[in-house]
Every structure is written in C-alpha cells, then in structure tokens.
Amino acid sequence: MTVIEFEQVNKIYRLGQRSTSLRDEIAQRATSLIRRNNQEKHMLHALNNVSFEVKAGETLGIIGHNGAGKSTILKLLSKVAYPTSGKIHTVGRLAALIELGAGFHPDLSGRENVYLNGSILGLKRREIEAQFNQIVEFAGLEKFIDTPVKRYSSGMYVRLAFAVAAHVCSDILLVDEVLSVGDAAFQQKCMTKMEELRQQGVTIVLVTHNLWSVESFCRRALLLRHGEIQAEGNPAEVIQIYRQNEREDLAAEELSETNNKSLRPTEEEDATVITCVEILDPKTDQPKERFESWDYMTIRAHFTTKVAIQSPYLVVRISRTDGLICCRATNNRDPYFVARRLEGEGHVEVLVGPLPLVPDTYTIEINIADSQQPILHASSSKSTFQINGDLSAPGEAGVFWVDTEWQAPKMIQSNL
C-alpha cells in the first residue's frame, strides 16, 4: 500500500517576497507587472518535477547537498508549505520533526508545550496524558519540565520535540536534520526509538547528512541535486553517487580557487598565511594525487609570515569529504621542531604513513598556531587526495583498515 505519493511536484519561491497584508500583496503584484522582465531572476526552483512513492512501513532516506530541496519535501508533506504545481497524497496520521521548536511557544513550560505540540500533531488530551511520563522520561527533562522552554538550550529543545513526535501514534514520521543538535548519546537513543517504530510498521522519512545513518537504517534512499531526483534505490549505491558528486564539486571548487588566487586582496601586515599545500610522493618528491592503501605521503605547507612565531604548533587533519575527521597529527612530540621559530617565507613538511585508509577521497587541513599562546596564525584546507580502489566494493565500508589474524573455527560438537 502506498502511503506517500509525489506526482510531478514543483515548488518555486519568489525571492524577496514578503506579504503580510492585502496592501502588501497588491503592491508586490503591481511591482511585478512593471518589472516583468526581471521576474525570472528572482525565482528559486526548490523542486523541479519531483515524483516518488513510499510504501507503508518503508524507511526512506533523503540525501543531497545543502539547498538540494530535502527539507522542502518534508515541509510539503507536512503541509507547512504547498506545491506550486503537482499532486501530493498521504494516507494516515503524520508526525513531523522538521524544524527546531516548531509548534512550541517559548513562554510556555515544557509540560504545557507537550500538550500544545501533541494537540497540533492530532492527539487528544487523554492520549497525551497516557504518554506524558514516557515523553518526559525519554527527553530526560524531569527537572525542567515546568520551566519555560525559552530558557532551554537547543539540545533540550530538540530532545523534547523529538520525544513528543516519537510517542505520537502516527502512521508516518518525518525527521529532518535537527537531530544533529543533540549529543551523541541522544542521537543513538533517537535511532533506537526509530528502529522500534519501524518494527511497529511506522513509515519513516529521514533527511540527514549522516550517510552512515541512511545506509544502516534506511531500506531505500533518494538523492536530490539542485531540486531534482538524481538517483533512487539501494542506499549504498545512492550514497556512492552522492560521494562522487562531492568529489567532482570539490575538484571544481579547487580549480576555481586556484584561478582566483591572483584576485585575492592583500593580506594584513601582521598576517600569517599558508600560501600552498603540496601532497608529494616521498620517493620522487613529486606531486601526487592518488595513493594506495598503506602508502606514505609527504605533506609540504608553504607559508609566509610578517611576525615571527616563536613556538610553532602545527596540526594536520585528514578528513573524509563529508567532514569526518579520520586522523590528526601534531608536532608537539618533537621538541627540536617546536624550538625552531617560523619567520618570513618558507615551508614545513611532514611524512605521513603508512595510510591505513579505505578507498575514498580525503581532504587535508593544516593549522599553524603558537604553543605558548592560544592564537591561530594560519589555516589551510581543501587539499585533496584519493586512495585507489572501488568505493562500492563489498567489505570496504568505513574509514581505515586494521590488521587482523583469524583463527580456524573450533567446533565443540557437530551434527553433520
């Protein structure tokens, strides 16, 4: 049974439009007639002819870059916004957590907002009372439930909001990226709760940048790119396409930044800058972009500084393109290096390896600070390299390889 149906949905926003009264609307319509030629320039196509279906009990993950249209889909489903054209059909009670604090009144207490938010989500008062203690316990806000929510931290806000949405007896649950506000323990608690709801047959639509959550929790994924569906199907395969998009976008950004270096403004007199970061093959001392797992690499950072850094403290971070920091290295264990000050123009380099990284694209960020003062003098990032291999190959998920030694199976008893 299909419980969510998107049929050729378009959503267009008119940038700068702000109608609070009939007078404002009339004035804007008159202005639009005068400036008809410029109308197209002020249109944002958030969704462009989007069509998909979700079956009852299915878990769908929606991924894509910022501004791809993910949250717009959830707002249309929950009727916070309406499509410019196309049809949207949902079956059953729907609960949504699409915006931090949506449906909460800041001057009301947590207790009062549980009842208010529950009513907005379609619960009767007796239903809220039956679930109230479970909601408060799940949110972990027993001590603060009678405190006005305007005094809550963002984490407390989202904990209470998710607790209410998760305890609504709904057929469809919509969850946006707001869960990232909570700490790691609460995020895990949320995933456990959503797993319970999935086993109960609740249809879940999850929008997130956490690709691991999509791959492990969702049975199907949908990739949006510039308001259109680029891929749909198995989460691992869709994520692979998304990661490829990231690599291509990053490469284009690096090329654009390189071409625009001559257009950068002159640095301040006391500025320290990292002018260039080279990734080299340590055997040939030549630039290299592709490495094998367990290879070594040389990272060389060129700098210029007007003021001497007496006790230089350097940090190298290697991250995945989705922002996950894979490893971090500093020079604080090398007293000889720390004793050498940086001044004028020059470069520093570090030999890194062997790299136990799985096939993927990684970025390098380098920071120059002073170990004697809490001052960051310079930072450079977006230098990338790749570990060769097939990203979609079975068994290559994760970040790094580990050495293993398998023992032969020892059978206590066999009936064969």
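[next item in queue]
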Amino acid sequence: MGFNDRDYSHNNYRGSGGGGSQFRLSMPPVTPVVMYLLIANLAIFFVSALIPPLKELFDTWFSVFPANFFMSIQVWRLVTYQFLHAHFAHVFFNMMALYVFGPDLEQRFGRNKFILFYLVCGATGGILYTILAAIGILGVGTLVGASGAVLGLIAASAILTPNRQITIMFFFTMTYRILALIIVAMSTVFFLFGTNQGGDAAHLAGMATATVYLLWKPWQTGTVQKTKRIKWEHKLNQQRNMQVDVDKILDKISKHGIGSLSRQEKKILKQASQKQQEQNKY
C-alpha cells in the first residue's frame, strides 16, 4: 500500500502493511517461489474482489483478527493474512516490491529457506499486532497484507547489498540502504501518529525480523566455527600428549624390556595402538 494511501479508521481499521512505492524499471527475471507467491496473491485478490461474499469469508477466517482469545491463538491466520489485501493499490505495491526484491534473495537463500524467511517476516507482523491489541495499545481490527513479508525482503536486501541502487517514482535514485532507512523512519512516525498503526507495526516487525536473522546468522556461524576450532585444538593436544607418553614408554621398553612396564603404561600403549589402527582405516 502506498505510504500516502491510508484509509483506516481508529477502532475498526483494516491494518494493512503496504509498504510500497513505484520501483525501478529494470526488473529481474522472476524466480519460481516469487512467481508462485505473485500468482497466489493476485489470484486471491481478484477472486475475492469479484465475489464479495468470498472476500467477507476470507477476511473473517483468514485475516489476523484478535477479537478474542480464541481468535488470537488461531495460528494459521499468521500465514493466511499475508495473502489478503484491502484494495488494488495495496496488492499492487506489495507485489511490485516482491517482484523487485524477491528473486535475488531467493537465489541467495535457496527456495526452501527463502519461503520460510518470507513467511516468518510476515508472521511476526501479525504476532506483534496481536500482542499490541491484546494489551490495549492498538484497537482491534483485521490485519491483512503481505507488507511485513515484503518489507522484510527490503531490509534483507539493504543488509546484503546496501549500495545497490533503485529508482523510485521514475526520478529518485537511492541505495537499498537509504530506502530501508526511509521506510523505517516513515513507518515509525505513522505508527506513533498515524491511523494505520497495525499495518505500520507489521512493517517494523517484518524489517526487524529480517535484520535480526541476517545479523544473528554470522554470529551463529562464528560461534559454531569457534567451538569446532576449540574441539579440534583439544583433540590435537590430546594426541600430542599421548605421543609424548608413547615415546617415553617405547624408550623404556628399549632399555629395560616390555616386562618393565606398569599397568598404566601398558594401557596407554594399547590405546595408542587402537587409535593408530582407526586412522589407518581411513
């Protein structure tokens, strides 16, 4: 949904996470998961637009709608609400953002990881809105739209390729990093002072989820590598210490014979022999 297109009332709004604007003209080739998401979103929108009772059914059962505790814990809504949109501008800008930013990330992440990343970014928007409504910060209404997910893609693109450029509204060229910062600033202001606070909460949650994931992953990888290095160094030290002991034992055998060995020395020699046999197998 366009940033200036906010048609929601305070207590009975349709919180939608449209975070779009017009994007660059040089479009990437569409990738499989992005294509399926585009088809699903557009098909659901046009079918529901043509059949009003179906739209009402979708909004009732598949939007995030924390009207009571039972509806708040219907977890399928956290996924299905991402495929519902309030109006044409809403779905258009979200799908344009998906089409522009999705393919590169799908190629980077792989299909399975990309779809999981996309849906989780969107789901956290629904979770945050539900929490804020439950504690009375926001009014209760229906939350629809893929904005949390697609803004997660924009945040991820800003982290992975911060200096790549995009042209908006045919005239304004900026880097992905600047675009993401502008969206964060605008969503924060609109969340604090606007009328689409549920949608803006979804914007910020989706972008925060993407940021945490991408910044946490290198830390996690570094921790795993550090743990492996420590284990490997410990193993090498054990091997060195055993070799020193074996050398002393062999020297003792050469001087005094094997009968001079203690029980512990024989055990060490046996363990060293077993390890050597295991290594020879490989």
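[queue empty]
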